[in-house]
Structure formats: structure tokens, C-alpha cells
Write a structure and sequence with these properties.
This protein is α+β, with helices and mostly antiparallel strands. Helices cover 19% and strands 29% of the residues. The protein has a two-stranded antiparallel ribbon. Strands 3-4 form a two-stranded antiparallel ribbon. Strand 3 and strand 4 form a beta hairpin. The longest helix is centred in the middle third of the chain and has 14 residues.
């Protein structure tokens, strides 16, 4: 009988986690970070829909804006011709 096994290299990377106020530790595989993924953004949008139309304070707390009036940020389809700043805002590179 032949048994074939595959290795998922993501699961082979192990990280040591401290638990119980640092008195013990355990080794676990690395989990992918999904804080900027599409799933997280849809969860956040659903949470905002459940919250309703909130009033948000802005301009040092002197102005109120409804959540429904805020513009949603969008990325341009093409980044050609845009600039990226670096070096504490002193250097500018054109894409």
C-alpha cells in the first residue's frame, strides 16, 4: 500500500506564542493575516449598516457629520502618473 502525502509550506513555519501571562509558551503554525482583505471590509460594512446613521465628530470636535454623508475611499484603476512620497515627505517618486 502506497500513501502519498503533500506538505503545505505555510503550516511548516512555526511561531512560539507566550500564554498565561508569559509563564508558558506553545508552538503554533503561522496563520495568514486577513485584516486588509475583502472579507474584513465586508464584515466592517455590515457592522456599519447595523449601527445605522451615526453622527461623527470632526474638526477637533466642532463639526458633526452623518455617517451616510461621508465619502467612501476608492483606489484609482491605474496608478500611472501618480506620485509616492518617501523620506519623511521630502522625496517624491513618479510611478
Amino acid at each position: 500500500m502506497i500513501i502519498e502525502m503533500g506538505i503545505n509550506f505555510v503550516d511548516t513555519i512555526v511561531v512560539r506564542h507566550n500564554v498565561e501571562r508569559g509563564t508558558s509558551s506553545e508552538d503554533k503554525p503561522v496563520l495568514p493575516a486577513e485584516f486588509m482583505g475583502k472579507q474584513t471590509s465586508t464584515i466592517n460594512e455590515n457592522r456599519l449598516k447595523l449601527a445605522g446613521d451615526l453622527m461623527i465628530m470632526s474638526a477637533k470636535g466642532t463639526k458633526k457629520i452623518k455617517l451616510s454623508e461621508l465619502e467612501k475611499p476608492t483606489l484609482p484603476a491605474d496608478f500611472k502618473g501618480h506620485y509616492i512620497t518617501s523620506g519623511r515627505g521630502t522625496t517624491r517618486v513618479k510611478l
